[in-house]
């Protein structure tokens, strides 16, 4: 039996199993007889553990559950089903049969209690507890209010707070803090500096809100102070004062709050939160209105800057979620349990390790045969055989692979780029498509108000330019600019969205908070009031009081306010996307030239906002008015025009990425024509490249869904007022345009229609889709996912405000924010421009290549040692402890610590590093160097035995320097060996050790790659110094006749001529390896030629589509008809292109 659950943004399948006694006994015996290897295998493969010990059963009977992710990895995890015995709480909490927890049939805990035993089954997955719902037969998450609750039920059930009994019986969340503290303690104990740094950062992340006290209102006990760690879902919080850290997720019931959600979104712009309206009906509260339900939620970890009660009442909020269930808990869990990535490096590393294990197994069998035939003691035979495994499989390999990432993370931190998922740094090196938000990312955050275009019954009037210094005349347009915003006054400073701030400043009005003596009907004390300043135009009203806000939402693309003129009318003002605002206005009030005027300014890159208003009846209570009532039958006021200039870094960065053959895509919520202009000005669309506008419309009763292609041509404007100077649609296309590259531009609405009705066309469109405008946050995420389906490695860069979904969905999400860590993305840049993107790609490529270099080196180091030891085993000899230590510590450890210090190469080259360990160049490099090392050590092993002085035997030549070997006479011993307690010193041992040790240094130099992805090796001064010192020490030991040193290292002194022979063999090894590495392995042109010769073609989806479209003369289509993928009622759905035909060319 299986079902689906959700944990940390990914779906899980759950399977029930029951422990079987006989199977468990057999597994226990297997663990004993395998000397602990079987439990190790079960640890790595939890599914095998369950299948071996248990039998399948229903979830209701299961004592073990097996969880499987639904992604491409199919990762398994094993969880034990636990029990909570509520009967044991009788004496402590007075749990009786009439307790609210047991009698409330709507409560999830009630449905989870098994009666009459009063016990609850549960499992714990990634810090979240799931209880078994006996009625529905599934595990359900607890620790938060149920989503099915309607707004009316939330107000009724929790509006007065919980009783003492309901508070006490809920789960204690001390573990939330303890988990972080324990992790910090463990990491300190292990003295792993980087792990400790991450743990301390995590601890500080939760400690700030986990140790505060908050006022909680109880149904009977009244208001009392409670430590935040004791909060439970359903508690009623009382928010007082300013600068309050939220200790949990809570739903706002009464009053309004201004919140800094920088930790969540990466954007430190105050956000206004409104109370959850009390609506009749049983519709779940999250879906009761079209607007984003998150505007009612105060998220854990965010800061409540300002809390204002309605009509002098207190600000109340119901606890929605606590602990790891909260938004901040989700951030902590995303760090503790990072999402699996489809990255071939790690899978290839496992496969290569398995090859090393197979090699070690062969060596172990060889060792057993040699030592058993030699009559050695069983204990020594087993010890030697086990030694082979530790030599062939380097235990430091995983650590070596991560050192490059750690160094890259430190270099990124110095550049102001912070990372909460270090494993993704390697993925940065594989990026070949980067999506950018426009506003605040490509263009400047601060907008300049260029002018406003009023309108009346006769159409648009002359543009009022603010550059002239003239004040805007009084009227509804001026009033809307002064009051339709979400600005707040904090510490005598106006704060809020930059667009709102610029718009308000242009009016020359002032902002104030009304005092206690402020008495206007239905206007509360301490309301926000805007007043004309001395420099403003003559105004017949004293000011305007802002009564109620319907905040801006990216999904809705608008905001609305209800205001009261002092001594005047009650009005509603709306501002937002021009097309959206116009749709709410009376058609006769929208000028006929609306579309053409809008195009004039958007095609020049201006940001355009529309304004509208209506009068309201005075007898309506403002809080009782629903949004859809207010936002109807509005009167169109005009267009606010703001300059949206490019950031200085935008154009050079995009040019750098494009020259490196990294695709750049714009995903914005702004106007399509504005986006096209910004794309041209920024270089995303180069001169001479065409932009094709794709328009798709939904099917209606009389017509089927349709899609059309129109070629967009740019005309340079000469005057703002000339309506002919805007982007027009070409009706004819010259033949040579087929040979030019092109880009597709489309809106979010068209993207949605194409996804639903023309899904077979979507990959073709995405191959050249560059400009996506009017995209909602959900559509941004969907687009990123569609690009990933084409096998692109996708990066997403945004300011975090409405890009959170896309930032998390992308392989690499980069948030431009002042915060080090945010839920929004794995990377956060303090520098508020896109210059961080190429830096991140460069460091990713450098870290990626470094991982490959370290992998090759560690593999070669272990094989060199492995080959040497096996050769010595033939003579039942081996390396001594000091010889092993010298190679492991003095050579390999120092190389591993310094080889990764190469920084990133400053220039992005137009190709990526090889993405797989199991690739022909890398395999050839490793295999060739293994064979070269094997040949050199074998030759040295054989030649030393054929030397004329080999059979004479000698204690040491060091005591009789420069004497002829023939003059040395010693009692005969076994050939080439010397009587010794350890039995290590021999000519073979000495030769093999010198060849292997210096070969490790040579391999490190050969494998340390520089250009084109890393700084040249000679610039890694520490690494070069280490190699020089190591080589000097080894040569000193080789040529210095120091008896004590040789005796300590278990070496024998050999004739000078033989030492020279060792140096010659090593030199030949170095020269041959260097030539092959540079002339063949690193020769990209050679490998490309080989690929073409054998007809190799990439299997990536985007490459396949590119080849298909390049050979398709009908794409984009011309005057063709085709049914949609989802025909409605058997009707055919057509798409047409009356004007354009072209061939694809590679960008």
Your description of this structure?
With 1147 residues, this protein is of the alpha+beta class. Among the domains are: 12-94 and 106-145, no CATH class; 213-278 and 293-336, Calcium-transporting ATPase, cytoplasmic transduction domain A (Distorted Sandwich), CATH 2.70.150.10; 345-396 and 845-950 and 984-1080, Calcium-transporting ATPase, transmembrane domain; 448-643, Calcium-transporting ATPase, cytoplasmic domain N (3-Layer(aba) Sandwich), CATH 3.40.1110. It is 39% helix and 20% strand. The strands form 7 sheets. Strands 21, 22, 35, 36, 37, 38, 39, 40, 41, 42, 43 and 44 form a 12-stranded mixed beta sheet that branches. The protein is globular, with a radius of gyration of 36 Å.
Strand content: 15-25%
Rough outline: globular
Indicate the percent of residues in helices: 25-40%
Using only CA atoms, what is the Rg?
A: 36 Å
The name CATH uses for the topology of the domain at 345-396 and 845-950 and 984-1080 is: Calcium-transporting ATPase, transmembrane domain
- Based on helices, strands and strand pairing, what is the structural class? alpha+beta
Count the DSSP helices: 37
What's the CATH class label of the domain at 345-396 and 845-950 and 984-1080? Mainly Alpha
- Report how far the terminal alpha carbons are from each other: 50 Å
**CATH architecture annotation name of the domain at 345-396 and 845-950 and 984-1080:** Up-down Bundle
Q: What's the mean pLDDT score?
A: 77
**In the CATH hierarchy, what is the superfamily of the domain at 345-396 and 845-950 and 984-1080?**
Calcium-transporting ATPase, transmembrane domain
Q: Characterize the main sheet.
A: 12 strands, mixed
- How many individual β-strands? 44
Can you tell me the residue ranges where pLDDT is under 50 for at least 5 consecutive residues? Answer: 1-9, 168-191, 716-740, 954-982, 1119-1123, 1125-1147
- Quaternary class: single chain
